[in-house]
Amino acid sequence: MRVGGPAPSSPTDRPPEIVEADRLEVGYGGRxxxxxxxxxxxxxxxxxxxxxxxxxxxxxxxxxxxxxPSLAGSLTVFGSAPRRGNPQIGYVPQRHTIDFExxxxxxxxxxxGFSGHRWGFPLSTRREIDxxxxxxxxxxxxxxxxxxxxxxxGGELQRVFLAEALVGDPGLLLLDEPLSNLDLRxxxxxxxxxxxxxxxxxxxxxxxxHDINPLIPYLDQVLYVANGQVASGPPMEVLTSERLTxxxxxxxxxxxxxRGNLVIVGGEDHVEGELVGGEDHHEGEAAGGTFSRGTxx
Length: 297
Description:
There is one protein chain. This protein is α/β, with parallel strands linked by helices. Helix content is about 25%, strand content about 25%. It has seven helices and eleven strands. The strands form three sheets. Strands 5-6-7-3-8-9 form a six-stranded mixed sheet, with helices on both faces. A three-stranded antiparallel sheet has the order 2-1-4, with helices on one face. A two-stranded antiparallel ribbon has the order 10-11. Strand 10 and strand 11 (about 260-265) form a beta hairpin. Helix 2 packs across helix 3 and helix 2 packs parallel to helix 4 (about 155-165). The longest helix is centred in the middle third of the chain and has 18 residues, at about 185-200. It starts with 16 loop residues before the first strand and ends in a 31-residue tail after the last strand.
């Protein structure tokens, strides 16, 4: 999903700090969800956003998309305050609002991510067509172009949604739970694809995940949201017993199984073989998507 109209720019035109938060506090109805968060996300980084249910992971995306104000502190995206319809952001929501009865072709969905036109508008320009083909090719989905969305597997759908987000050449990708309905093999393939795009294009990606294990080999940074706080840094610095014990305020143990997978014991939840995450309570407009340009329509 392309957040705004196309405004391509080269990676060298973009600031090294794509996202910067300083003592940020967010909440609903004046009640904080998390507070005193300071972190930076730099150009070309792949960052996992993880934490228990309701901790405020999707809330972070709502802030970055300009859909929700902060209570205190500061947040900048590309050096400016967040705003709705920022063309430099590509967004894949948790759930797409798709009527499978319409038999929408994959190519048409990706093209609309570039143009923002609704159905029935004039024929595509050459620029739109080239951009749509380029985005599908970038995700290895050119062979899916003429297939209806209703005929795709979960992994194929995620590739098409990623192409839709990429079609306008964004500098920042926000991927909200893209692995949630995929088996482990397909999840690893999608993570490897996202990593390839991040490295090849110099784009920054924030990915909300329920299971961090498929991501660990590729991550530059983790934002761990829990207990009203945000811990940030390289995975091996954040995902430690000592750091998470401080974050939760109760004893937490980080273990590795025989395959190197992380298991978190303690904190607010414990799920065998994975870090706890999932949907946040306050999803609002950041949880859905449409075929039209812009967000919150």
